[in-house]
């Protein structure tokens, strides 16, 4: 069954590189400078697996045309990587250069065939990373019978020293194991990627930012009610809803870790971690964990923001925000009943 989520922490930790190459992109050149081989040492392989894991999130996209150049080249790689990887990687680099009509800096386009493990199943993915660097021409290369081979030590040092070098990333899945076809993001944007990069990938957003904003809020709301017996005694589900909406109102980019940091507040470290893991799992199931988007809090309707309780005696309470701020207190009684105390300036409507 196709999963809505981006790669989970377990899937990220399982990333292994099967094929890896990069081609050099120079502004003003009609063609990339192609390499024929990149030999990775064990430590370099680990470095790039970690970098690929960091990049394995972003906005979810669907192909607009699976027969377009980039998705077809990725499919041919997956169909026969031993025969097709190198030539198709060159074609992907050329397509990227063709679509990038704006000013750009020198850099490399990394093409990697990776595997991730999910439920004991190995899933192949194509990863594309555009890394910018002004010293790209200083990469040492060596002419061999098969072509140009990069000496990776200098390249690795350059990437490590410049943490901002990773500009764009796309993770491409062809075999319908996930509900998305592509995860993509840019370093400077929370709203997905530029139009030329979408054109290069031949994709459109699976859902818009308003949809993901509503999903993030509703996921917290439903999770809090389902787990209310596990929450700290001084917090009820409305507290979690309030912190979720505050995060969405005060942040220009959704980040899963930051969202969890704000929503889950607990002085008990073991319970806090348990609640974080539980909510993160819910966000992953809904396809939100790992997403990057600009929150649109205005898309959350007022009626959804409100908290509503109906007592067994038929009394309805409705408020927005935290109960205490609204003048409402809930006190548990020794016999199991709850006493509700309302501090009010009066009634706005009586009937």
State the gist of this model.
By secondary structure, this protein is an alpha+beta fold. It has eleven helices and 14 strands.
Describe what you observe in this structure.
With 351 residues, the chain is of the alpha+beta class. The chain folds into 2 domains: 9-205, no CATH class; 208-351, no CATH class. Helices cover 36% and strands 24% of the residues. It contains 11 helices and 14 strands. It has helices at residues 9-13, 42-55, 69-79, 81-99, 152-161, 195-201, 209-226, 237-250, 256-263, 269-285, 302-305; strands at 16-25, 37-38, 59-63, 107-118, 121-132, 141-144, 147-150, 166-172, 182-186, 203-205, 306-310, 316-320, 328-332, 338-342. The strands form 4 sheets. The chain has a 7-stranded antiparallel beta sheet, sandwiched between helices. Strand 13 (328-332) and strand 14 (338-342) form a beta hairpin. Helix 4 packs antiparallel against helix 6 (195-201), helix 7 runs antiparallel to helix 8 (237-250) and helix 8 packs across helix 9. The protein is elongated and about 85 Å long.
């Amino acid at each position: 069954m196709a999963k809505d989520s981006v790669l989970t922490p377990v899937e990220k930790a399982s990333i292994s590189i099967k094929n890896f190459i990069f081609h050099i992109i120079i502004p003003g050149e009609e063609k990339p400078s192609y390499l024929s081989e990149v030999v990775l040492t064990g430590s370099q392989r680990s470095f790039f697996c970690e970098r690929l894991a960091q990049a394995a999130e972003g906005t979810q996209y669907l192909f607009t045309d699976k027969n377009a150049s980039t998705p077809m080249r990725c499919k041919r790689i997956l169909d026969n990587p031993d025969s097709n990887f190198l030539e198709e990687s060159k074609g992907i680099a050329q397509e990227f250069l063709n679509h990038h009509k704006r000013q750009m800096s020198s850099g490399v386009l990394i093409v990697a065939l990776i595997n991730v493990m999910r439920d004991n199943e190995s899933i192949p993915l194509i990863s594309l990373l555009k890394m910018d660097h002004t010293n790209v021409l200083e990469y040492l290369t060596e002419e061999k019978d098969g072509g140009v081979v990069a000496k990776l030590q200098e390249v690795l040092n350059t990437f490590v020293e410049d943490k901002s070098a990773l500009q764009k990333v796309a993770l491409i899945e062809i075999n319908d194991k996930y509900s998305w076809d592509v995860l993509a993001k840019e370093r400077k944007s929370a709203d997905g990627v530029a139009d030329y990069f979408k054109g290069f990938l031949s994709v459109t957003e699976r859902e818009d930012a308003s949809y993901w904003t509503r999903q993030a809020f509703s996921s917290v709301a439903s999770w809090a009610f389902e787990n209310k017996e596990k929450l700290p005694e001084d917090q009820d589900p409305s507290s979690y809803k309030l912190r979720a909406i505050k995060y969405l109102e005060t942040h220009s980019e959704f980040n899963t870790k930051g969202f969890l940091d704000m929503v889950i507040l607990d002085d008990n470290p073991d319970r806090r971690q348990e609640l974080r893991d539980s909510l993160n799992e819910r966000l992953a199931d809904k396809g939100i964990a790992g997403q990057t988007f600009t929150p649109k809090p205005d898309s959350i309707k007022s009626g959804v923001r409100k908290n509503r309780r109906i007592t067994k005696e038929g009394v309805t309470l409705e408020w927005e925000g935290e109960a205490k701020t609204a003048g409402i207190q809930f006190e548990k009684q020794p016999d199991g009943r709850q006493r509700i105390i309302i501090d009010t300036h009066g009634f706005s409507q009586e009937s």
